[in-house]
Amino acid sequence: MDRQAILNELKIVLEPYTEDKEMLREINDGTDLVKDLKINSANLVDIIIDAEAKYNVEIDMDSAEKMTTVGSCIDVIMTKMAK
Amino acid sequence: MTVKSAGNDIVALELIDKERSERPAFYSKILSTDEQALYKRKESGEMPFEIYLWLLWSIKESVYKYKKRSSPGLSFCPAKIIVQHIDPPSGPSPAISPGPWDIDSYEGDELYEGRILFGSEVFYSRSMIHKEWIATVAGDDNRFEGISWGVKMIGRAEYEHQSASVREFVLAKLELLSPGHDWQITKNQVGCPILVKSGAPLNIPLSLAHHDRYVAYSFPSGHPQFSSPHPQSPVPHQRLQRMTGT
Q: B35-63 in b/e burial notation, b at 16+ Cβ within 10 A?
């Protein structure tokens, strides 16, 4: 699965947690989950859990800490799927 | 005393997913094994697990926000901020007036008191658990002298409304503390909120939080900029009240 495919799927994962649907359609690697998508920090663990379920991976604490942008989310997911 | 930073958080309990909060895969990303054991020992009092989980979340996020001002590159990893101890309120659970809640005295017996380890640094917290929300303020001095802390319910939960409402809430408090100035809120070079008085940025840290229909702030109102006598307010804020007979 390539980066673009994961990015498209991330839009579905992130959808319940942002009210800015227009920004969500335009996300790219640099999009910040909190600053740009205005996702409340209380939902960050939800997103990690949803990503774990969707890709059947386990995201450890150190990896989860890096998941602040769309690009870093994709990096973590691809790394975990490669294992 | 110079307060170097400010950190607070609020969690709207209506948005908490109780079933998800009870899943080990979820809570283990927030709580360390020691914190899970702390819940079982019930040292912080009797409470449902999801309330304990989100109480600790609010403590951890408050500490993170306090620390981020001096460490702008810091990422939030709740499991690395360790709550070592929580003292429950010494009094019975209070019933709270409808708000807004203005909590600038920490001598009451309504608050949970926490001690937190983050790396090699020790932090402290004060939290209130209301039937609709959990609010926390954190700092590196356990006395919390001169820290002003407010919680308010707002009409709608849209982000822009939350953001505007919490700023209006702070500005109303500032007008009470130091009336007659043009107070504004801006961000410093690393993106943390600071206060501006009559056009001059002040080195007074401010922490803002919002979740669903609740907003909250904390800042050091013991700063010399607020040293003028406090005027009597016509009522903009209600003091935290314990209702008798409930």
A: bbebbeeeebeebeebbbbbbbbbbbbbb
Contact at 8 Å (CB) between A17 and B17? Answer: no
CA distance linking residue B188 with residue B201, whole number of Å: 9
Q: Distance from B236 to chain A by nearest Cα, in Å?
A: 28
Cis geometry, peptide bond prior to residue B100 (ω within 30 degrees of 0): yes
What lies within 8 Å, CB to CB, of B1 at 6+ separation is: B141, B145, B146, B222
List of domains in chain A? 3-82 (1.10.1200.10)
Q: Shortest CA distance to B86 belongs to which of B115, B129, B50?
A: B115
| Separation CA B128–CA B124 (nearest Å) | 14
Tell me, what's the ipTM? 0.89
Residues of chain B in contact with residue A41, where contact means CB-CB under 8 angstroms, are 61, 76
Tell me which residue in A42, A65, A66 faces B57 most closely, judged by beta carbons: A42
For B52-65, the pLDDT digits (tens) are 999 999 999 999 99
Cα separation values, B18 from A35, B136, B216, Å: 27, 20, 23
Q: Which residues of A touch B18 (CB under 8 A)?
A: none
SS3 label, residue B127 = strand
Strand partners, B140: none
**Spatial CB neighbours of B228, under 8 Å, sequence gap ≥ 6:** B178
Whole-model pTM: value is 0.90
Q: What is the pLDDT of residues B5-62, one digit of tens each?
A: 999 999 999 999 999 999 999 999 999 999 999 999 988 888 999 999 999 999 999 9
